[in-house]
Protein backbone atom coordinates (compact mmCIF):
# COMPACT_ATOMS: atom_id res chain seq x y z
CA UNK A 1 0.00 0.00 0.00
CA UNK A 2 1.23 3.49 -0.80
CA UNK A 3 -1.77 5.56 0.18
CA UNK A 4 -4.28 6.14 2.88
CA UNK A 5 -7.18 3.70 2.85
CA UNK A 6 -10.54 3.16 4.49
CA UNK A 7 -10.11 0.62 7.28
CA UNK A 8 -13.66 0.43 8.60
CA UNK A 9 -16.86 1.84 7.13
CA UNK A 10 -20.23 2.02 8.88
CA UNK A 11 -23.41 3.34 7.26
CA UNK A 12 -26.45 4.18 9.38
CA UNK A 13 -29.78 5.04 7.69
CA UNK A 14 -27.85 6.14 4.62
CA UNK A 15 -29.77 5.74 1.36
CA UNK A 16 -30.81 2.06 1.11
CA UNK A 17 -28.55 0.96 3.97
CA UNK A 18 -30.25 0.80 7.35
CA UNK A 19 -27.04 -0.46 8.94
CA UNK A 20 -24.00 -1.60 6.98
CA UNK A 21 -20.51 -2.42 8.16
CA UNK A 22 -17.33 -3.20 6.25
CA UNK A 23 -13.85 -4.14 7.51
CA UNK A 24 -11.19 -3.43 4.89
CA UNK A 25 -7.50 -4.23 4.62
CA UNK A 26 -6.39 -1.69 2.01
CA UNK A 27 -6.66 -3.85 -1.10
CA UNK A 28 -8.92 -2.76 -3.95
CA UNK A 29 -12.61 -3.33 -3.16
CA UNK A 30 -14.98 -5.06 -5.60
CA UNK A 31 -18.69 -4.60 -4.88
CA UNK A 32 -21.02 -6.83 -6.88
CA UNK A 33 -24.75 -7.42 -6.87
CA UNK A 34 -27.92 -6.67 -8.83
CA UNK A 35 -28.86 -3.19 -9.97
CA UNK A 36 -30.59 -1.25 -7.21
CA UNK A 37 -29.03 -3.26 -4.38
CA UNK A 38 -27.06 -0.31 -3.01
CA UNK A 39 -23.56 -0.59 -4.51
CA UNK A 40 -23.36 3.00 -5.71
CA UNK A 41 -24.67 4.16 -2.33
CA UNK A 42 -21.52 2.73 -0.74
CA UNK A 43 -19.33 4.57 -3.25
CA UNK A 44 -21.26 7.75 -2.52
CA UNK A 45 -20.61 7.30 1.20
CA UNK A 46 -16.87 6.96 0.55
CA UNK A 47 -16.94 10.03 -1.72
CA UNK A 48 -18.29 12.05 1.23
CA UNK A 49 -14.93 11.53 2.93
CA UNK A 50 -13.74 14.37 0.66
CA UNK A 51 -14.88 18.01 0.57
CA UNK A 52 -18.06 18.72 -1.32
CA UNK A 53 -21.39 17.04 -1.96
CA UNK A 54 -20.12 13.66 -3.10
CA UNK A 55 -20.35 11.87 -6.41
CA UNK A 56 -24.11 12.44 -6.76
CA UNK A 57 -23.96 16.11 -5.67
CA UNK A 58 -26.94 15.40 -3.43
CA UNK A 59 -28.29 17.51 -0.61
CA UNK A 60 -28.17 16.20 2.95
CA UNK A 61 -31.92 15.49 3.00
CA UNK A 62 -31.70 13.30 -0.11
CA UNK A 63 -29.26 10.91 1.55
CA UNK A 64 -31.57 9.92 4.40
CA UNK A 65 -33.01 6.43 4.18
CA UNK A 66 -36.69 6.31 3.28
CA UNK A 67 -39.35 5.98 4.57
CA UNK A 68 -37.88 6.56 8.04
CA UNK A 69 -36.12 9.85 7.12
CA UNK A 70 -34.13 9.71 10.34
CA UNK A 71 -30.75 11.31 10.66
CA UNK A 72 -28.08 9.50 8.63
CA UNK A 73 -24.45 8.96 9.56
CA UNK A 74 -21.25 7.65 7.98
CA UNK A 75 -18.35 6.57 10.16
CA UNK A 76 -14.98 5.62 8.73
CA UNK A 77 -11.42 5.08 9.78
CA UNK A 78 -8.75 6.38 7.44
CA UNK A 79 -5.53 4.47 7.93
CA UNK A 80 -2.08 5.49 6.74
CA UNK A 81 0.44 3.10 8.17
CA UNK A 82 0.35 3.47 11.94
CA UNK A 83 -1.73 6.66 11.76
CA UNK A 84 -5.49 6.26 11.97
CA UNK A 85 -8.09 9.02 11.79
CA UNK A 86 -11.74 8.68 12.77
CA UNK A 87 -14.17 10.49 10.49
CA UNK A 88 -17.88 10.88 11.17
CA UNK A 89 -20.24 12.81 8.92
CA UNK A 90 -24.01 12.95 8.70
CA UNK A 91 -27.09 15.07 9.05
CA UNK A 92 -30.15 15.23 11.27
CA UNK A 93 -33.55 15.95 9.64
CA UNK A 94 -33.69 19.55 8.45
CA UNK A 95 -30.05 20.18 9.34
CA UNK A 96 -26.97 20.63 7.14
CA UNK A 97 -24.29 18.00 6.98
CA UNK A 98 -21.87 17.95 9.90
CA UNK A 99 -18.33 16.61 10.14
CA UNK A 100 -16.13 15.43 12.99
CA UNK A 101 -12.52 14.32 12.62
CA UNK A 102 -10.99 12.46 15.55
CA UNK A 103 -13.96 13.50 17.66
CA UNK A 104 -13.69 17.23 16.95
CA UNK A 105 -15.90 19.40 14.71
CA UNK A 106 -14.10 20.24 11.47
CA UNK A 107 -14.77 22.08 8.20
CA UNK A 108 -15.14 19.97 5.09
CA UNK A 109 -11.93 21.32 3.61
CA UNK A 110 -10.05 19.54 6.42
CA UNK A 111 -10.86 16.23 4.71
CA UNK A 112 -8.45 17.16 1.91
CA UNK A 113 -5.63 17.03 4.46
CA UNK A 114 -6.43 13.38 5.15
CA UNK A 115 -6.86 11.97 1.66
CA UNK A 116 -7.74 12.81 -1.93
CA UNK A 117 -10.51 11.02 -3.83
CA UNK A 118 -11.09 10.75 -7.57
CA UNK A 119 -14.10 9.08 -9.20
CA UNK A 120 -15.81 8.05 -12.39
CA UNK A 121 -19.56 7.37 -12.53
CA UNK A 122 -21.86 6.35 -15.43
CA UNK A 123 -23.40 9.83 -15.55
CA UNK A 124 -20.05 11.08 -16.85
CA UNK A 125 -20.16 8.79 -19.89
CA UNK A 126 -21.86 11.57 -21.88
CA UNK A 127 -19.37 14.17 -20.67
CA UNK A 128 -17.92 14.93 -24.10
CA UNK A 129 -21.24 15.28 -25.95
CA UNK A 130 -23.37 17.22 -23.48
CA UNK A 131 -23.19 20.82 -22.31
CA UNK A 132 -20.15 22.63 -20.95
CA UNK A 133 -21.48 22.69 -17.38
CA UNK A 134 -20.70 19.02 -16.81
CA UNK A 135 -17.20 19.39 -18.22
CA UNK A 136 -16.54 22.41 -15.99
CA UNK A 137 -17.69 20.40 -12.99
CA UNK A 138 -15.40 17.54 -14.01
CA UNK A 139 -12.47 19.91 -14.44
CA UNK A 140 -13.18 21.60 -11.12
CA UNK A 141 -13.29 18.25 -9.32
CA UNK A 142 -9.92 17.30 -10.83
CA UNK A 143 -8.55 20.72 -9.94
CA UNK A 144 -9.74 20.42 -6.35
CA UNK A 145 -7.94 17.10 -6.04
CA UNK A 146 -4.68 18.96 -6.72
CA UNK A 147 -5.52 22.30 -5.09
CA UNK A 148 -8.22 22.01 -2.40
CA UNK A 149 -8.37 25.82 -2.17
CA UNK A 150 -9.88 25.81 -5.66
CA UNK A 151 -13.24 24.93 -4.13
CA UNK A 152 -13.16 28.07 -1.99
CA UNK A 153 -12.33 30.19 -5.03
CA UNK A 154 -15.26 28.74 -6.99
CA UNK A 155 -17.67 29.37 -4.11
CA UNK A 156 -16.38 32.93 -3.64
CA UNK A 157 -16.84 33.64 -7.36
CA UNK A 158 -20.36 32.22 -7.38
CA UNK A 159 -21.39 34.25 -4.34
CA UNK A 160 -20.07 37.53 -5.75
CA UNK A 161 -21.56 36.77 -9.16
CA UNK A 162 -25.02 36.20 -7.67
CA UNK A 163 -24.84 39.62 -6.05
CA UNK A 164 -23.69 41.23 -9.30
CA UNK A 165 -26.41 39.47 -11.31
CA UNK A 166 -29.01 40.79 -8.88
CA UNK A 167 -27.83 44.33 -9.57
CA UNK A 168 -27.88 43.68 -13.32
CA UNK A 169 -31.44 42.33 -13.25
CA UNK A 170 -32.56 45.31 -11.18
CA UNK A 171 -30.99 47.61 -13.80
CA UNK A 172 -28.80 49.34 -11.19
CA UNK A 173 -26.44 51.74 -12.99
CA UNK A 174 -24.49 53.31 -10.13
CA UNK A 175 -20.86 52.13 -10.55
CA UNK A 176 -20.26 52.35 -6.80
CA UNK A 177 -22.53 49.33 -6.31
CA UNK A 178 -20.53 47.25 -8.75
CA UNK A 179 -16.90 47.99 -7.98
CA UNK A 180 -16.51 46.12 -4.69
CA UNK A 181 -18.44 43.09 -5.95
CA UNK A 182 -16.50 43.00 -9.20
CA UNK A 183 -13.23 43.19 -7.29
CA UNK A 184 -14.22 40.06 -5.35
CA UNK A 185 -15.29 38.30 -8.55
CA UNK A 186 -12.09 39.27 -10.30
CA UNK A 187 -9.82 38.04 -7.52
CA UNK A 188 -11.62 34.68 -7.37
CA UNK A 189 -11.70 34.39 -11.18
CA UNK A 190 -7.94 34.87 -11.45
CA UNK A 191 -7.39 32.09 -8.91
CA UNK A 192 -9.83 29.76 -10.69
CA UNK A 193 -8.15 30.27 -14.07
CA UNK A 194 -4.69 29.69 -12.62
CA UNK A 195 -5.73 26.57 -10.68
CA UNK A 196 -7.49 25.03 -13.69
CA UNK A 197 -4.51 25.58 -15.96
CA UNK A 198 -2.24 24.06 -13.34
CA UNK A 199 -4.49 20.98 -13.10
CA UNK A 200 -4.51 20.49 -16.88
CA UNK A 201 -0.71 20.76 -16.93
CA UNK A 202 -0.41 18.14 -14.19
CA UNK A 203 -2.69 15.75 -16.06
CA UNK A 204 -0.64 16.23 -19.22
CA UNK A 205 2.58 15.47 -17.35
CA UNK A 206 1.03 12.35 -15.81
CA UNK A 207 0.00 11.06 -19.25
CA UNK A 208 3.30 11.85 -20.95
CA UNK A 209 5.52 8.80 -21.16
CA UNK A 210 3.15 6.58 -19.19
CA UNK A 211 2.69 3.07 -20.54
CA UNK A 212 -1.01 2.38 -20.35
CA UNK A 213 -3.68 0.45 -22.19
CA UNK A 214 -5.89 3.52 -22.21
CA UNK A 215 -5.58 6.37 -24.73
CA UNK A 216 -4.09 9.72 -23.84
CA UNK A 217 -5.99 12.96 -24.34
CA UNK A 218 -4.75 16.45 -25.04
CA UNK A 219 -6.69 18.79 -22.78
CA UNK A 220 -7.26 22.51 -22.92
CA UNK A 221 -9.41 25.06 -21.14
CA UNK A 222 -11.61 26.91 -23.63
CA UNK A 223 -12.58 30.38 -22.47
CA UNK A 224 -15.85 32.03 -23.48
CA UNK A 225 -16.01 35.02 -25.79
CA UNK A 226 -14.70 38.09 -23.97
CA UNK A 227 -12.76 36.03 -21.42
CA UNK A 228 -9.88 35.04 -23.71
CA UNK A 229 -6.48 36.09 -22.44
CA UNK A 230 -7.72 37.26 -19.03
CA UNK A 231 -5.28 36.18 -16.33
CA UNK A 232 -4.98 38.64 -13.46
CA UNK A 233 -7.56 40.10 -11.12
CA UNK A 234 -6.99 43.48 -12.79
CA UNK A 235 -7.74 41.92 -16.19
CA UNK A 236 -11.04 40.55 -14.97
CA UNK A 237 -12.03 43.72 -13.08
CA UNK A 238 -11.44 45.82 -16.20
CA UNK A 239 -13.39 43.35 -18.35
CA UNK A 240 -16.33 43.28 -15.93
CA UNK A 241 -16.55 47.06 -15.89
CA UNK A 242 -16.46 47.25 -19.69
CA UNK A 243 -19.06 44.50 -20.03
CA UNK A 244 -21.69 46.03 -17.71
CA UNK A 245 -23.96 47.40 -20.50
CA UNK A 246 -23.95 44.05 -22.34
CA UNK A 247 -24.41 42.12 -19.10
CA UNK A 248 -27.29 44.36 -18.06
CA UNK A 249 -29.04 43.57 -21.32
CA UNK A 250 -28.58 39.85 -20.67
CA UNK A 251 -29.38 40.13 -16.97
CA UNK A 252 -26.30 38.10 -16.05
CA UNK A 253 -22.51 38.09 -16.12
CA UNK A 254 -21.21 37.00 -19.51
CA UNK A 255 -17.48 37.11 -18.75
CA UNK A 256 -15.63 34.84 -16.38
CA UNK A 257 -14.57 31.26 -15.61
CA UNK A 258 -18.19 30.21 -15.02
CA UNK A 259 -18.52 30.00 -18.82
CA UNK A 260 -15.31 28.09 -19.54
CA UNK A 261 -15.27 24.70 -21.22
CA UNK A 262 -12.90 21.73 -21.23
CA UNK A 263 -11.68 20.55 -24.60
CA UNK A 264 -10.18 17.11 -25.22
CA UNK A 265 -8.54 15.51 -28.24
CA UNK A 266 -7.83 11.78 -28.60
CA UNK A 267 -4.05 12.13 -29.05
CA UNK A 268 -3.35 9.05 -31.18
CA UNK A 269 -6.07 9.91 -33.70
CA UNK A 270 -6.10 13.69 -33.47
CA UNK A 271 -9.88 13.48 -33.05
CA UNK A 272 -11.97 15.71 -30.83
CA UNK A 273 -13.48 13.65 -27.99
CA UNK A 274 -16.95 14.74 -29.12
CA UNK A 275 -16.48 12.81 -32.37
CA UNK A 276 -15.01 9.64 -30.87
CA UNK A 277 -16.98 6.43 -30.49
CA UNK A 278 -18.77 5.68 -27.22
CA UNK A 279 -16.09 3.16 -26.31
CA UNK A 280 -13.29 5.60 -27.05
CA UNK A 281 -14.96 8.31 -24.98
CA UNK A 282 -15.21 5.92 -22.02
CA UNK A 283 -11.58 4.90 -22.43
CA UNK A 284 -10.52 8.56 -22.49
CA UNK A 285 -12.38 9.18 -19.23
CA UNK A 286 -10.73 6.19 -17.56
CA UNK A 287 -7.36 7.40 -18.84
CA UNK A 288 -7.89 10.84 -17.29
CA UNK A 289 -8.96 9.40 -13.92
CA UNK A 290 -5.90 7.15 -13.85
CA UNK A 291 -3.66 10.08 -14.85
CA UNK A 292 -5.24 12.15 -12.06
CA UNK A 293 -4.45 9.38 -9.59
CA UNK A 294 -0.88 8.92 -10.84
CA UNK A 295 -0.22 12.66 -10.67
CA UNK A 296 -1.51 12.87 -7.09
CA UNK A 297 0.64 9.94 -6.04
CA UNK A 298 3.69 11.47 -7.72
CA UNK A 299 3.20 14.81 -5.99
CA UNK A 300 1.97 13.76 -2.55
CA UNK A 301 3.65 10.37 -2.23
CA UNK A 302 0.28 8.73 -1.55
CA UNK A 303 -2.20 7.25 -3.99
CA UNK A 304 -5.72 8.69 -3.73
CA UNK A 305 -8.86 6.67 -3.19
CA UNK A 306 -10.28 5.80 -6.62
CA UNK A 307 -14.03 5.20 -7.05
CA UNK A 308 -15.16 3.52 -10.29
CA UNK A 309 -18.88 2.87 -10.58
CA UNK A 310 -19.97 0.21 -13.09
CA UNK A 311 -16.70 0.61 -14.97
CA UNK A 312 -15.95 -3.06 -15.68
CA UNK A 313 -19.16 -3.80 -17.59
CA UNK A 314 -18.18 -1.53 -20.50
CA UNK A 315 -14.73 -3.04 -21.06
CA UNK A 316 -13.71 -6.20 -22.88
CA UNK A 317 -11.75 -8.84 -20.98
CA UNK A 318 -8.31 -7.61 -22.08
CA UNK A 319 -8.92 -3.97 -21.26
CA UNK A 320 -10.62 -4.90 -17.98
CA UNK A 321 -7.56 -6.89 -16.98
CA UNK A 322 -5.36 -3.94 -17.98
CA UNK A 323 -7.44 -1.60 -15.83
CA UNK A 324 -7.10 -3.88 -12.82
CA UNK A 325 -3.34 -4.16 -13.36
CA UNK A 326 -3.03 -0.36 -13.45
CA UNK A 327 -5.11 0.02 -10.30
CA UNK A 328 -2.99 -2.52 -8.44
CA UNK A 329 0.23 -0.91 -9.70
CA UNK A 330 -1.01 2.42 -8.37
CA UNK A 331 -0.95 0.87 -4.91
CA UNK A 332 -3.94 2.66 -3.46
CA UNK A 333 -7.42 1.53 -2.50
CA UNK A 334 -9.84 1.50 -5.42
CA UNK A 335 -13.57 0.87 -5.04
CA UNK A 336 -15.33 -0.71 -8.02
CA UNK A 337 -18.89 -1.87 -8.64
CA UNK A 338 -20.40 -4.38 -11.04
CA UNK A 339 -23.41 -6.63 -11.34
CA UNK A 340 -21.53 -9.92 -11.11
CA UNK A 341 -18.47 -11.37 -9.39
CA UNK A 342 -17.22 -12.62 -12.77
CA UNK A 343 -16.47 -9.02 -13.80
CA UNK A 344 -13.68 -8.96 -11.23
CA UNK A 345 -12.27 -12.43 -11.87
CA UNK A 346 -8.98 -11.02 -13.20
CA UNK A 347 -8.34 -9.37 -9.84
CA UNK A 348 -8.39 -12.64 -7.93
CA UNK A 349 -6.91 -12.37 -4.42
CA UNK A 350 -5.55 -8.89 -5.16
CA UNK A 351 -8.92 -7.47 -4.09
CA UNK A 352 -11.54 -7.81 -1.38
CA UNK A 353 -14.97 -8.69 -2.75
CA UNK A 354 -18.34 -7.92 -1.18
CA UNK A 355 -21.74 -9.06 -2.36
CA UNK A 356 -24.38 -6.36 -2.04
CA UNK A 357 -27.92 -7.65 -1.80
CA UNK A 358 -31.38 -6.39 -0.97
CA UNK A 359 -34.01 -7.75 1.39
CA UNK A 360 -37.36 -6.01 1.86
CA UNK A 361 -35.91 -2.75 0.60
CA UNK A 362 -32.88 -2.89 2.88
CA UNK A 363 -29.37 -3.29 1.48
CA UNK A 364 -27.16 -6.08 2.79
CA UNK A 365 -23.36 -6.37 2.70
CA UNK A 366 -21.55 -9.71 2.86
CA UNK A 367 -17.86 -10.28 2.25
CA UNK A 368 -17.33 -12.88 -0.45
CA UNK A 369 -14.75 -15.45 0.54
CA UNK A 370 -12.43 -16.91 -2.10
Classify the beta-strand content into a percent band: 15-25%
Q: What is the H/E string?
A: EEEHEEEEEHHHEHEEHEHEEE
Using the CA coordinates, give the radius of gyration.
22 Å
Strand order of the largest sheet: 2-1-4-5-6-7
What is the structural class? alpha/beta
Number of strands: 15
Helix content: 25-40%
Main sheet attributes: strand count, strand direction, barrel closure: 6 strands, antiparallel
End-to-end gap: 21 Å
Number of helices: 7
Concise structural overview:
By secondary structure, this protein is an alpha/beta fold. It has helices at 39-47, 132-146, 149-169, 175-207, 233-250, 278-300, 317-330; strands at residues 5-14, 17-23, 29-32, 72-80, 83-91, 98-101, 104-105, 117-120, 217-222, 261-266, 271-272, 305-308, 334-338, 352-359, 362-368.
Amino acid sequence: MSGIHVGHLTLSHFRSHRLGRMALDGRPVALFGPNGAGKTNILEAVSLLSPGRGLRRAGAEEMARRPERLGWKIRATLADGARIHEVATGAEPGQPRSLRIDGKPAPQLALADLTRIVWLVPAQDRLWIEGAEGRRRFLDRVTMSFVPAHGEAVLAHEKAMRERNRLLKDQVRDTMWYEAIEAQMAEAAARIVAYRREAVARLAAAQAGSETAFPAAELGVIEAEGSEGLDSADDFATAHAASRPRDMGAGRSLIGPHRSDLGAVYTAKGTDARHCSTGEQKALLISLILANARALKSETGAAPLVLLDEVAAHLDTARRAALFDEICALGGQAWMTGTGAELFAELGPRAQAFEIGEQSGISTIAEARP
